[in-house]
Amino acid sequence: MIALSFQGDQDREDNGCGIIYGMMRDAGFRLKHLVTREIESHRLKSSRSSGAADGGRPAT
User: Angle at which helices 15-54 and 2-11 pack, to 10 degrees?
Assistant: First the structure.
């Protein structure tokens, strides 16, 4: 989404398209940020739950 917005902005023919591509770029960066936070949240939750029950040892 981000790459597409940059390409579209580069190829645009008028300012109206630039506004749309800018909005698309902003939305892409917001989504990327949310996904990164969500992945980190799941990673932390997983490491806490796996370490609490078995002393941090891997399951065999």
Answer: 170
> Domains in the chain: how many in total?
1
Location of structure tokens 């969500």: 38
Q: Which domain holds residue 37?
A: 2-48
pLDDT digits (tens, 9 = 90+) for 6-45: 999 999 988 889 999 999 999 999 999 999 999 999 999 9
Structure tokens at 9: 């902005």
SS3 of the chain: the string is CHHHHHHHHHHCCCHHHHHHHHHHHHHHHHHHHHHHHHHHHHHHHHHHHHHHHHCCCCCC
6 with 29: CB under 8 angstroms? Answer: no
The structure's pTM equals: 0.68
